Amino acid sequence: MRFLLDTHTILWYLFGDSRLSPKTKETIDQNDCYFSYASFWEISIKQSKNKLQLSHSIFEIDEKCRLAGFKKLPITLSVLNKVRNLPFQENVKHNDPFDRILISQALVNDLTIITCDEKIPLYNVRTIW
Known about the structure:
By secondary structure, this protein is an alpha/beta fold. The protein has six helices and five strands, in the order βααβααβααββ.
């Protein structure tokens, strides 16, 4: 199977966070996994607001993703068009722009998102955790 990693999934996997279950780690290890630069945009924003403390730069995280065997998934015009057509869910308070790009990338590229975010499945995209 092919999977798109949510931002927290990337960080938890790369830095050995215990919140990543052994089952999820095994799924990542045994399948084709993709990452999006939308996650790096999110990381950069959160670092600039001091909401995320990391001693690694996005350049180092990018290299770690590549060394882990993850493939970069481009943000194409088809993805952006899908974002444009994605409904805003009334029961989703934040309608996170990073999540909306990841959701659109997963839909356009027929990927399942590995995430523990309970709001992402509200957009009818396949997820696992």
